């Protein structure tokens, strides 16, 4: 019996692994519907798998060499009835799985606002989702609450039964934002913004993490996701405001430097344009935002006047932001400009490029030029602005 005890302990391991099945017992309606899809898909596939496994054992036993009563037909090669069963059953399963996947893909679209927070709890038109801006850093998570003017690191809290609208981006490499108890995972990518909608339907403390490998500190890239009552959430907000710290651009640039196992940090005030600057890769002072660059490119570029409009980076982007020596000239970025040349300025200076849209590379401008654009200084709100009439 003593020799069998290790085998008995090993047999219990699969049962112990399922003690905390948060994916199948979540605290959010979206995650619960996703879990139901997993269960339904598994049951549908078992309709094929279980009979095949059972028949495999049956045929091995029925037609064993010692069984002389089994019918031996070495020339048998076709059965219409058997072919119908073999092809019809999997085809029906695939049709059912395809229908479930199609419906679930549209109903559980992460960009789609919630229609309910739980079965029987519809979201009315008067309910406004709570906006939470999420930035995946190396290797920690930054949460910004633009409506409340606060921010936290490695801790997120939302009121129970209130829809939450996440705007998600990253500072350097791709991560995957995932709170199993709330909703599915979605990628966080630098220079891009993804969205996710979800709502907790019961209070509690849950775990969120990155589900995409992103470097040495990836295994500790976890945060606490808290679902609180309205009263507790208000107290949590006041606790953050009592910290007195401010998250401005300089603080963010120091915060985004690679570090692991960071404690929870709280900020009582946040630069309102910080998240948009993160998405547009222009938190660094004097760097042109991506939307400004795209606006210039849409007008045909700045021509020869923009060739020298670059500056050296103050960090080594190939090593890690802020961790290497100053650039030696190999790494450069496009500098922000205060204003694009107007038509009158171009007439006065023939060397400047035309601001009229081009038909194509090297072709003449279109007959009707579009109004000039003006790019504001790099304050995080820079963008194409058309003069008003």
UniProtKB/TrEMBL annotation:
<dbReference type="InterPro" id="IPR006333">
    <property type="entry name" value="Cyt_o_ubiquinol_oxidase_su2"/>
</dbReference>
<feature type="domain" description="Cytochrome oxidase subunit II copper A binding">
    <location>
        <begin position="127"/>
        <end position="239"/>
    </location>
</feature>
<dbReference type="Pfam" id="PF06481">
    <property type="entry name" value="COX_ARM"/>
</dbReference>
<dbReference type="GO" id="GO:0042773">
    <property type="term" value="P:ATP synthesis coupled electron transport"/>
</dbReference>
<dbReference type="Pfam" id="PF00116">
    <property type="entry name" value="COX2"/>
</dbReference>
<keyword id="KW-0812">Transmembrane</keyword>
<dbReference type="InterPro" id="IPR045187">
    <property type="entry name" value="CcO_II"/>
</dbReference>
<feature type="domain" description="Cytochrome oxidase subunit II transmembrane region profile">
    <location>
        <begin position="15"/>
        <end position="112"/>
    </location>
</feature>
<keyword id="KW-1133">Transmembrane helix</keyword>
<keyword id="KW-0732">Signal</keyword>
<keyword id="KW-0564">Palmitate</keyword>
<keyword id="KW-0449">Lipoprotein</keyword>
<feature type="transmembrane region" description="Helical">
    <location>
        <begin position="37"/>
        <end position="61"/>
    </location>
</feature>
<comment type="similarity">
    <text>Belongs to the cytochrome c oxidase subunit 2 family.</text>
</comment>
<dbReference type="InterPro" id="IPR010514">
    <property type="entry name" value="COX_ARM"/>
</dbReference>
<feature type="region of interest" description="Disordered">
    <location>
        <begin position="346"/>
        <end position="389"/>
    </location>
</feature>
<keyword id="KW-0560">Oxidoreductase</keyword>
<keyword id="KW-0472">Membrane</keyword>
<dbReference type="GO" id="GO:0005886">
    <property type="term" value="C:plasma membrane"/>
</dbReference>
<dbReference type="InterPro" id="IPR034227">
    <property type="entry name" value="CuRO_UO_II"/>
</dbReference>
<dbReference type="InterPro" id="IPR036257">
    <property type="entry name" value="Cyt_c_oxidase_su2_TM_sf"/>
</dbReference>
<feature type="transmembrane region" description="Helical">
    <location>
        <begin position="82"/>
        <end position="103"/>
    </location>
</feature>
<dbReference type="InterPro" id="IPR011759">
    <property type="entry name" value="Cyt_c_oxidase_su2_TM_dom"/>
</dbReference>
<keyword id="KW-0249">Electron transport</keyword>
<protein>
    <recommendedName>
        <fullName>Ubiquinol oxidase polypeptide II</fullName>
    </recommendedName>
</protein>
<keyword id="KW-0813">Transport</keyword>
<dbReference type="GO" id="GO:0004129">
    <property type="term" value="F:cytochrome-c oxidase activity"/>
</dbReference>
<dbReference type="InterPro" id="IPR008972">
    <property type="entry name" value="Cupredoxin"/>
</dbReference>
<keyword id="KW-1003">Cell membrane</keyword>
<dbReference type="InterPro" id="IPR002429">
    <property type="entry name" value="CcO_II-like_C"/>
</dbReference>
<dbReference type="GO" id="GO:0009486">
    <property type="term" value="F:cytochrome bo3 ubiquinol oxidase activity"/>
</dbReference>
<dbReference type="GO" id="GO:0005507">
    <property type="term" value="F:copper ion binding"/>
</dbReference>
<keyword id="KW-0679">Respiratory chain</keyword>
<dbReference type="GO" id="GO:0016682">
    <property type="term" value="F:oxidoreductase activity, acting on diphenols and related substances as donors, oxygen as acceptor"/>
</dbReference>
């Amino acid at each position: 019996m003593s020799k069998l005890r290790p085998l008995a302990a090993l047999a219990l391991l699969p049962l112990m692994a399922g003690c905390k099945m948060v994916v199948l017992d979540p605290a959010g309606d979206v995650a619960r519907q996703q879990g139901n899809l997993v269960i339904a898909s598994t049951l549908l596939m078992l309709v094929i798998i279980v009979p095949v496994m059972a028949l495999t054992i049956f045929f091995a036993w029925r037609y064993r060499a010692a069984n002389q009563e089994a019918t031996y037909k070495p020339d048998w090669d076709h059965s219409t009835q058997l072919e119908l069963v073999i092809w019809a059953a999997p085809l029906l399963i695939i049709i059912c799985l395809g229908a479930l996947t199609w419906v679930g893909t549209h109903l559980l679209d992460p960009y789609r606002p919630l229609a309910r927070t739980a079965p029987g709890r519809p979201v009315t038109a008067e309910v406004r989702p709570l906006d939470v801006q999420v930035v995946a850093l190396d290797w920690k998570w930054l949460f910004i609450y633009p409506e409340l003017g606060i921010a936290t690191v490695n801790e997120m809290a939302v009121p129970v039964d209130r829809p939450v609208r996440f705007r998600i981006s990253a500072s350097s490499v791709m991560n995957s934002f995932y709170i199993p108890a709330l909703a599915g995972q979605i990628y966080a990518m630098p220079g891009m913004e993804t969205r996710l909608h979800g709502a907790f339907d019961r209070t509690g403390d849950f775990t969120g993490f990155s589900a995409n490998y992103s470097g040495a500190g990836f295994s500790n890239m976890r945060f606490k996701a808290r679902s609180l009552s309205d009263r507790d959430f208000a107290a949590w907000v006041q606790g953050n405001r009592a910290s007195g710290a401010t998250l401005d651009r300089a603080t963010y640039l120091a915060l985004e430097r690679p570090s692991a196992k960071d404690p929870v940090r709280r900020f009582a005030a946040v630069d309102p344009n910080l998240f948009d600057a993160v998405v547009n890769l222009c938190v660094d002072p004097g760097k042109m935002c991506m939307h400004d660059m795209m606006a210039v490119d849409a007008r045909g570029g700045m021509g020869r006047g923009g060739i020298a409009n670059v500056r050296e980076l103050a960090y080594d982007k190939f090593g890690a932001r802020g961790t290497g020596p100053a650039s030696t000239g190999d790494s450069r970025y496009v500098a922000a400009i205060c204003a694009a040349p107007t038509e009158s300025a171009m007439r006065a200076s023939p060397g400047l490029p035309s601001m009229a849209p081009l038909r194509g590379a090297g072709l003449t401008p279109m007959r009707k030029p579009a109004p000039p654009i003006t790019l504001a200084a790099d304050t995080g709100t820079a963008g194409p602005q058309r003069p008003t009439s």
